[in-house]
Design goal:
8-stranded parallel sheet; alpha/beta; 3-stranded mixed sheet; single chain; 15 strands; globular; 11 helices
């Protein structure tokens, strides 16, 4: 084959060599129609970056993200609750960040272009209110084995790669989207998916990060540990080998290997052992936390608690400059922060609302 022929074949194609597992992939030049229209950003926002164990803005000032989870935009659209008014209410609760969980099943059923059009709306609304966004690929299960907790979480490694390439291409250099949460809750489902292997999971996350960074390096990839995104202990010896990464934990009250007690000191020891230690070296963004009384709406393991958890978990995180995002600003998904679409706070909703208003 001549050099001329090689040039013709390779023209317009960028080859990305993914160092994790020496995986290679090709991506064509981005179609401009696939890129977010930056004119829809009405206000300037600082790019949030990783610096050591901190998140910082353009001036180098530390940023602590504190906010709320919404339900999947697909669910909110079906209930006619997806609107600027919803984001305005979140801002009034004191949040500075909103996490958007994207279920793989919803992504497929609504269709890429339709779903992206609504994420575009979220970006415009959040930007107008000075809010940041976390995009979360909201699956639960073990990606290497293709075993998941429910059909709504079913995905594949190929689809997950494609999702992040599409998202990273579309929202390149959009500062409103600060964080890409690569996979919501990795778990082997009590070994129904086989034994979870950290080295295997590490390589997958590094591959996804390479895909994202090939499109946009001005975003923070967020990596979860095992036990439904609770346990970060493997990173003590074998962290993700990429720069600019943050980690997440979902430390619901019944996630520890021992039951939480009313004794704050004992609980702090457990949290520090399992995930809090990582805040010494890396930014931590707790993207799910919350509780409900044992006899409350939607009570289930691991979220049941008598209310002592709220003040304790906030104190633990604030002492370590850990960012946090409460689950969930929705009256249907549990543990709820609101009991209706008039935004009446639940017990945890009222507590976290006051914390957000005070701390932000």
């Amino acid at each position: 084959m001549t050099i001329k022929h090689i040039t013709q074949i390779t023209f317009g194609i960028v080859t990305l060599i993914l160092s994790a597992g020496a995986i290679s992939a090709t991506t064509t030049k981005v179609n401009q129609s696939a890129v977010f229209d930056h004119s829809k950003l009405s206000k300037p926002q600082s790019v949030i970056k990783v610096s050591g164990n901190r998140l910082i803005d353009d001036s180098g000032k530390q940023v602590i993200l504190r906010g709320l989870n919404l339900a999947d935009p697909d669910k909110l659209l079906k209930q006619n609750q997806w609107s600027l008014a919803l984001f305005t209410e979140i801002k009034a609760w004191g949040a500075n960040v909103v996490r958007l969980p994207v279920h793989p099943a919803a992504w497929r059923s609504r269709g890429k272009d339709n779903y992206l059009s609504h994420l575009d709306e979220a970006v415009s609304w959040a930007n107008s209110l000075g809010l940041y966004l976390i995009i979360d690929w909201h699956s639960i299960g073990y990606l290497p084995a293709n075993v998941y907790q429910d059909k709504m979480y079913d995905t594949t490694l190929a689809e997950t790669k494609q999702f992040w390439q599409v998202i990273a291409q579309r929202y390149k250099n959009v500062p409103t989207i600060a964080v890409y949460e690569l996979f919501n809750e990795p778990t082997d489902l009590a070994e129904k998916a086989g034994k979870a292997n950290w080295q295997e999971w590490k390589v997958i996350n590094e591959t996804l990060i390479d895909i994202i960074y090939n499109e946009d390096s001005n975003v923070i990839p967020l990596v979860a540990g095992f036990n439904w995104a609770y346990d970060l202990r493997p990173i003590a010896e074998n962290p993700i080998a990429r720069a600019g990464v943050a980690y997440t934990s979902h430390p619901y009250p019944q996630k520890t290997s021992q039951s939480l007690s009313s004794d704050q000191a004992s609980n702090f020891v457990l949290w520090q052992r399992d995930w809090g230690f990582a805040a010494t070296d890396y930014p931590i963004i707790v993207t799910e936390l919350g509780w409900v009384q044992a006899d409350g709406y939607g009570a289930h393991v691991p979220v049941k608690n008598d209310g002592s958890y709220g003040p304790q978990i906030v104190a633990f995180m604030e002492q370590r400059n850990i960012s946090w995002v409460v689950w969930v600003f929705d009256p249907n998904w549990s543990p709820t922060m609101i009991s209706d679409w008039q935004f009446t706070p639940t017990e945890q909703g009222e507590f976290f609302k006051q914390q957000l208003l005070k701390l932000n």
